[in-house]
Amino acid sequence: MPKRFVVAASEFPDLPRFPVGSELAEALTVASQQLHETLTPHNTLRTAVRLAVHLMPGAEHAGVSVLERGSRLRTLAWTDEVVRSAEARHTGREPHGHWERLWNSPVARIGDSEADDGWDVLSALGLRSALSLRLRADRRRLTVLTAYARKPGVFDEDATHIGRLFTAHVSIALDSATVREQLTEAMHTRDLIGQATGILMERQGIDAAAAFESLVRASQRENVKLRDLARRIVGTHNST
Protein backbone atom coordinates (compact mmCIF):
# COMPACT_ATOMS: atom_id res chain seq x y z
CA MET A 1 0.00 0.00 0.00
CA PRO A 2 1.34 3.48 -0.84
CA LYS A 3 2.01 5.81 2.02
CA ARG A 4 -0.46 8.59 2.73
CA PHE A 5 1.09 12.03 2.67
CA VAL A 6 -1.46 14.04 4.65
CA VAL A 7 -0.59 17.68 5.20
CA ALA A 8 -0.84 18.87 8.79
CA ALA A 9 -1.43 22.54 9.47
CA SER A 10 1.67 22.65 11.67
CA GLU A 11 3.93 20.89 9.18
CA PHE A 12 5.48 24.14 7.99
CA PRO A 13 5.45 26.39 11.06
CA ASP A 14 7.74 28.96 9.40
CA LEU A 15 5.32 29.56 6.54
CA PRO A 16 2.14 31.66 6.60
CA ARG A 17 -0.90 29.86 5.26
CA PHE A 18 -1.74 31.12 1.73
CA PRO A 19 0.67 34.11 1.90
CA VAL A 20 -0.11 37.38 0.14
CA GLY A 21 1.61 40.72 -0.27
CA SER A 22 4.98 41.09 1.46
CA GLU A 23 4.60 37.68 3.11
CA LEU A 24 4.76 35.95 -0.26
CA ALA A 25 8.42 36.68 -1.05
CA GLU A 26 9.50 35.52 2.39
CA ALA A 27 7.32 32.41 2.19
CA LEU A 28 8.74 31.47 -1.21
CA THR A 29 12.27 31.95 0.10
CA VAL A 30 11.60 29.60 3.02
CA ALA A 31 9.89 27.11 0.69
CA SER A 32 12.85 27.23 -1.68
CA GLN A 33 15.24 26.47 1.18
CA GLN A 34 13.13 23.49 2.22
CA LEU A 35 13.01 22.20 -1.35
CA HIS A 36 16.79 22.49 -1.75
CA GLU A 37 17.35 20.57 1.49
CA THR A 38 15.85 17.43 -0.10
CA LEU A 39 18.40 14.87 -1.19
CA THR A 40 16.61 13.07 -4.03
CA PRO A 41 14.16 14.05 -6.80
CA HIS A 42 11.47 11.89 -5.16
CA ASN A 43 11.83 13.71 -1.86
CA THR A 44 11.78 17.04 -3.71
CA LEU A 45 8.42 16.15 -5.24
CA ARG A 46 7.01 14.91 -1.94
CA THR A 47 7.99 18.19 -0.32
CA ALA A 48 6.62 20.16 -3.27
CA VAL A 49 3.10 18.74 -3.04
CA ARG A 50 2.94 19.40 0.69
CA LEU A 51 4.19 22.95 0.22
CA ALA A 52 1.72 23.52 -2.63
CA VAL A 53 -1.23 22.91 -0.32
CA HIS A 54 0.27 25.29 2.20
CA LEU A 55 1.21 28.11 -0.18
CA MET A 56 -1.24 28.11 -3.09
CA PRO A 57 -4.49 29.97 -2.27
CA GLY A 58 -7.45 27.59 -2.09
CA ALA A 59 -5.43 24.39 -2.58
CA GLU A 60 -6.58 21.43 -0.50
CA HIS A 61 -4.83 18.58 -2.28
CA ALA A 62 -1.90 18.35 -4.69
CA GLY A 63 -0.07 15.85 -6.83
CA VAL A 64 2.81 15.65 -9.28
CA SER A 65 2.30 13.53 -12.38
CA VAL A 66 4.09 12.57 -15.57
CA LEU A 67 2.24 12.48 -18.88
CA GLU A 68 3.87 10.88 -21.91
CA ARG A 69 2.56 11.38 -25.43
CA GLY A 70 0.15 8.62 -26.30
CA SER A 71 0.42 7.12 -22.84
CA ARG A 72 -1.29 7.22 -19.48
CA LEU A 73 -0.91 9.62 -16.62
CA ARG A 74 1.44 8.40 -13.88
CA THR A 75 1.40 9.96 -10.41
CA LEU A 76 4.78 10.45 -8.73
CA ALA A 77 3.84 12.24 -5.48
CA TRP A 78 0.57 13.07 -3.78
CA THR A 79 -0.70 14.62 -0.57
CA ASP A 80 -3.37 11.98 0.06
CA GLU A 81 -5.28 9.12 -1.49
CA VAL A 82 -7.91 11.46 -2.96
CA VAL A 83 -5.31 12.76 -5.40
CA ARG A 84 -3.94 9.34 -6.18
CA SER A 85 -7.43 8.00 -6.82
CA ALA A 86 -8.32 10.95 -9.07
CA GLU A 87 -5.22 10.61 -11.22
CA ALA A 88 -5.13 6.81 -11.22
CA ARG A 89 -8.63 6.72 -12.75
CA HIS A 90 -7.23 8.31 -15.89
CA THR A 91 -5.20 5.18 -16.55
CA GLY A 92 -6.10 3.70 -19.92
CA ARG A 93 -8.19 6.72 -20.92
CA GLU A 94 -7.54 9.15 -23.70
CA PRO A 95 -5.85 12.20 -22.14
CA HIS A 96 -8.39 14.93 -21.37
CA GLY A 97 -8.03 18.27 -23.13
CA HIS A 98 -6.97 19.79 -19.81
CA TRP A 99 -3.78 17.75 -19.85
CA GLU A 100 -3.26 18.16 -23.58
CA ARG A 101 -3.22 21.95 -23.22
CA LEU A 102 -0.09 21.68 -21.10
CA TRP A 103 2.01 20.65 -24.11
CA ASN A 104 1.58 24.20 -25.41
CA SER A 105 0.83 26.20 -22.26
CA PRO A 106 2.46 26.28 -18.80
CA VAL A 107 -0.95 26.46 -17.08
CA ALA A 108 -4.33 24.74 -17.34
CA ARG A 109 -7.33 25.30 -15.07
CA ILE A 110 -10.61 23.56 -14.32
CA GLY A 111 -13.20 25.98 -12.99
CA ASP A 112 -15.87 23.42 -12.14
CA SER A 113 -15.55 19.69 -12.79
CA GLU A 114 -19.33 19.27 -12.62
CA ALA A 115 -19.84 21.73 -15.47
CA ASP A 116 -16.93 20.46 -17.59
CA ASP A 117 -17.69 17.35 -19.65
CA GLY A 118 -15.25 14.52 -19.06
CA TRP A 119 -14.37 15.37 -15.48
CA ASP A 120 -16.73 12.93 -13.77
CA VAL A 121 -13.62 11.37 -12.20
CA LEU A 122 -12.97 14.54 -10.22
CA SER A 123 -16.57 15.41 -9.40
CA ALA A 124 -17.17 11.87 -8.10
CA LEU A 125 -14.42 12.47 -5.56
CA GLY A 126 -15.79 15.86 -4.58
CA LEU A 127 -13.05 17.80 -6.37
CA ARG A 128 -14.49 20.79 -8.25
CA SER A 129 -11.44 22.96 -9.12
CA ALA A 130 -7.98 22.11 -10.41
CA LEU A 131 -4.92 24.09 -11.39
CA SER A 132 -2.16 22.30 -13.32
CA LEU A 133 1.28 23.87 -13.68
CA ARG A 134 4.05 22.54 -15.88
CA LEU A 135 7.30 21.66 -14.09
CA ARG A 136 9.25 20.03 -16.92
CA ALA A 137 8.59 19.44 -20.58
CA ASP A 138 10.28 17.89 -23.58
CA ARG A 139 8.96 16.45 -26.82
CA ARG A 140 7.75 13.24 -25.22
CA ARG A 141 7.11 13.91 -21.55
CA LEU A 142 5.45 16.42 -19.24
CA THR A 143 5.91 16.70 -15.49
CA VAL A 144 3.01 18.57 -13.94
CA LEU A 145 2.04 19.79 -10.48
CA THR A 146 -1.73 19.94 -9.96
CA ALA A 147 -3.58 21.54 -7.04
CA TYR A 148 -7.17 20.53 -6.31
CA ALA A 149 -10.00 22.10 -4.31
CA ARG A 150 -13.50 21.00 -3.29
CA LYS A 151 -15.09 24.33 -4.22
CA PRO A 152 -15.61 25.53 -7.81
CA GLY A 153 -13.79 28.55 -9.21
CA VAL A 154 -11.09 28.55 -6.55
CA PHE A 155 -8.01 29.11 -8.69
CA ASP A 156 -8.14 32.66 -9.99
CA GLU A 157 -5.37 34.74 -11.57
CA ASP A 158 -3.75 35.48 -8.20
CA ALA A 159 -3.61 31.79 -7.30
CA THR A 160 -2.21 31.01 -10.73
CA HIS A 161 0.47 33.70 -10.36
CA ILE A 162 1.56 32.34 -6.98
CA GLY A 163 1.48 28.81 -8.37
CA ARG A 164 3.79 29.76 -11.23
CA LEU A 165 6.24 31.46 -8.88
CA PHE A 166 6.22 28.40 -6.64
CA THR A 167 6.69 25.89 -9.46
CA ALA A 168 9.67 27.90 -10.74
CA HIS A 169 11.34 27.19 -7.39
CA VAL A 170 10.28 23.55 -7.54
CA SER A 171 11.75 23.14 -11.03
CA ILE A 172 15.13 24.55 -9.97
CA ALA A 173 15.24 22.37 -6.84
CA LEU A 174 14.21 19.31 -8.87
CA ASP A 175 17.01 19.91 -11.39
CA SER A 176 19.53 20.29 -8.55
CA ALA A 177 18.36 17.11 -6.83
CA THR A 178 18.52 15.21 -10.14
CA VAL A 179 22.11 16.34 -10.77
CA ARG A 180 23.12 15.38 -7.21
CA GLU A 181 21.54 11.95 -7.62
CA GLN A 182 23.29 11.41 -10.96
CA LEU A 183 26.66 12.43 -9.52
CA THR A 184 26.16 10.15 -6.52
CA GLU A 185 25.24 7.27 -8.81
CA ALA A 186 28.25 7.97 -11.03
CA MET A 187 30.60 7.94 -8.03
CA HIS A 188 29.03 4.73 -6.75
CA THR A 189 29.34 3.15 -10.19
CA ARG A 190 33.00 4.20 -10.43
CA ASP A 191 33.70 2.64 -7.02
CA LEU A 192 31.92 -0.59 -7.99
CA ILE A 193 33.86 -0.88 -11.24
CA GLY A 194 37.09 -0.17 -9.37
CA GLN A 195 36.34 -2.91 -6.84
CA ALA A 196 35.38 -5.39 -9.59
CA THR A 197 38.55 -4.56 -11.52
CA GLY A 198 40.64 -5.18 -8.39
CA ILE A 199 38.95 -8.54 -7.83
CA LEU A 200 39.68 -9.61 -11.43
CA MET A 201 43.30 -8.48 -11.08
CA GLU A 202 43.69 -10.67 -8.01
CA ARG A 203 41.86 -13.67 -9.48
CA GLN A 204 43.53 -13.65 -12.89
CA GLY A 205 46.92 -12.18 -12.01
CA ILE A 206 46.60 -9.37 -14.55
CA ASP A 207 47.08 -5.60 -14.46
CA ALA A 208 44.33 -2.97 -14.12
CA ALA A 209 44.00 -2.26 -17.86
CA ALA A 210 43.60 -5.94 -18.71
CA ALA A 211 41.12 -6.45 -15.87
CA PHE A 212 38.98 -3.54 -17.03
CA GLU A 213 39.11 -4.80 -20.64
CA SER A 214 38.00 -8.22 -19.41
CA LEU A 215 35.13 -6.61 -17.54
CA VAL A 216 34.02 -4.68 -20.65
CA ARG A 217 34.16 -7.79 -22.86
CA ALA A 218 32.10 -9.77 -20.36
CA SER A 219 29.56 -6.94 -20.20
CA GLN A 220 29.19 -6.96 -23.99
CA ARG A 221 29.11 -10.75 -24.24
CA GLU A 222 26.40 -11.11 -21.58
CA ASN A 223 24.54 -7.95 -22.70
CA VAL A 224 24.67 -6.65 -19.13
CA LYS A 225 25.41 -3.09 -18.07
CA LEU A 226 28.96 -2.65 -16.83
CA ARG A 227 27.65 -1.32 -13.50
CA ASP A 228 25.39 -4.33 -12.96
CA LEU A 229 28.13 -6.80 -13.87
CA ALA A 230 30.54 -5.06 -11.50
CA ARG A 231 27.93 -5.18 -8.72
CA ARG A 232 27.47 -8.91 -9.31
CA ILE A 233 31.22 -9.61 -9.16
CA VAL A 234 31.64 -7.59 -5.99
CA GLY A 235 28.59 -9.19 -4.38
CA THR A 236 29.81 -12.70 -5.20
CA HIS A 237 33.29 -11.92 -3.90
CA ASN A 238 31.94 -10.49 -0.63
CA SER A 239 29.69 -13.47 -0.02
CA THR A 240 32.53 -16.03 -0.30
TrEMBL record:
The keyword Transferase applies. Coiled coil: none annotated. Signal peptide: none annotated. Keywords: Kinase, Transcription, Transcription regulation, Transferase. Transmembrane segments: none annotated. Residues 173-234 form the ANTAR domain. InterPro entries: ANTAR, CheY-like_superfamily, GAF, GAF-like_dom_sf, GAF_ANTAR, WH-like_DNA-bd_sf. The keyword Transmembrane helix does not apply. This is ANTAR domain-containing protein.
